[in-house]
Amino acid sequence: MTDTPYAARRVFVQRVPFAPTRYQCFDAARLIAESVVGAEPEVSCVIGIASGGIEPARLMANYLKVPFHSVRAKHNKGDALWQQATGNVEVLVDGTLPDRFAGTVLLVDDIAGTGATFSAVTAALSRRLDGGSAIMSAALFRNRGCPQPPDRWAWTVDDWVVFPWETPHRGPTQPLPPLRRVRTR
Q: What is the CA 92 to chain-centroid distance, rounded?
C-alpha cells in the first residue's frame, strides 16, 4: 500500500457533466492502443487502475494481445459531482501481479484528474521493472487542471465526467467533441 499526497486541483466549470457513451470510451481506448503499437520497448502488458481504468485497459490488452492486470487506487471520497481529489492516493497491489515486468507497461485509467493516481501507482510499480523497462500512462480523459498529464489521452475536459460503468447521471449532460486524435505529452 502506498499513500501519496498531491496538491493539484481539478478544473470544473460546473455546467453539466460530460457523459461519454460506452462506444466513445471503447473507441478512444482502441485509438490509444493503436497509438502505442511500435513503442520501444514493446508493450508487454496492460495494467488497469481499478475501478475506472479496468474496462478500457481490458480492451487495450485484448487489442495489443498482451496480458491484462489490475491494481487498486483510490483518493476520491465518493462519486459526488465536482469534488476535488483528496491528493492522498491509496494504492493496493495484490499478490496476483507479477513480481517483475519487462518491456513497456501500459498503465490505464479512465481520467487523469490531477495526475496523483498515475504518480502513486507508478511509484508502487517502479521497483518491479526490469532494467530498460518503462511505464507508459494512458487515460481516456485528462482534466484541464492536471499539471502532469498522462503520456497519452483522448479528450481534455473542464468539467466532471460520468462514465458508462458508473451510476448514471439523472440530469442533463453535455456532448463530447468528436475524437480526432490521441494526444501525447
A: 16
Kindly tell me the burial class for residue 180, based on how many C-beta atoms sit within 10 Å of its own C-beta (0-12, 13-18, 19 or more): exposed
The number of angstroms, rounded, from the C-alpha of 27 to the middle of its chain's C-alpha atoms is 15
Residues 133-149: tens digit of each pLDDT: 999 999 999 999 999 99
pLDDT the model gives residue 181: 94
- What is the signed CA dihedral for 113, 115, 116, 119, rounded to 10 degrees? 150
Overall pTM > 0.70: yes
Q: What is the third-level CATH fold of 2-78+86-184?
A: Rossmann fold (3.40.50)
Q: Kind and range of the H or E element at 141?
A: strand 134-143
Domain ranges of the chain: 2-78+86-184
